[in-house]
Amino acid sequence: MADAPYLIALALVEQNGARAMPLQGKSLRQPLPPGADPGEVGRQQALELLVRVWQRSEEGPLRRAAGGHSLLLAAVPVEALMEQLPRLKAAWISAGDTAGLIAGLQRLSAGVWTVQMEPRQPLCFKPLAVAAA
């Protein structure tokens, strides 16, 4: 894995009968420590992505396409942005296999988290357990 991964936020949505996966990302100066969550940079990426998703609502009604797994963060190597990530995105848009998408992200990344929010609490990140091989 690259020394400085890229943190991406992904929204899994349906709009006008079609799946879409808007992305937002930022290069990290250093890898996240093992067991750490994306912290403030993750919150910023999630916020920026959610603003973009909200702006899409002008094109038609939106709905989460994967329930509680519809907003994800992943720390991936920069090299994955050119080939592996576009393949995972295309496969999910085509088939809607969220478990396959998450497993693919986990193979690439140093961490995959769902973004959650409890009432009157800040955004938090729940690490997704590594799928069985």
How would you describe the overall organization of this protein?
There is one protein chain. With 133 residues, the protein is an alpha+beta fold. The chain has one domain (6-127). 31% of the residues lie in helices and 29% in strands. The chain has 3 helices and 8 strands, in the order E-E-E-E-H-E-E-H-H-E-E. It has helices at residues 39-56, 84-95, 98-108, and strands at 6-11, 13-15, 18-20, 23-27, 62-64, 71-76, 111-117, 123-127. It has a 5-stranded antiparallel β-sheet. Strands 3-2-5 form a 3-stranded antiparallel β-sheet. Strand 2 and strand 3 form a beta hairpin. Helix 2 packs antiparallel against helix 3. The chain starts with 5 loop residues before the first strand and ends in a 6-residue tail after the last strand. The model has no long low-confidence stretch (mean pLDDT 91).
Brief characterization of the structure:
The chain has one domain (about 5-125). Helix 2 (about 85-95) packs antiparallel against helix 3.
- Beta-strand level of the residues, as a percent range? 25-35%
Radius of gyration (Å) = 14 Å
Helix count, DSSP H or I runs of 4 or more residues: 3
Task: Tell me the number of structural domains.
Answer: 1
Overall average pLDDT: 91
Structural class call reads alpha+beta
- Identify the overall geometry: globular
Low-confidence runs: none
Helix-strand pattern, N to C?
A: EEEEHEEHHEE
Amount of helix? 25-40%
**Main sheet record:** 5 strands, antiparallel
Terminal residue distance: 20 Å
Q: What is the tally of beta strands?
A: 8
What strand order characterises the main sheet? 4-1-6-7-8
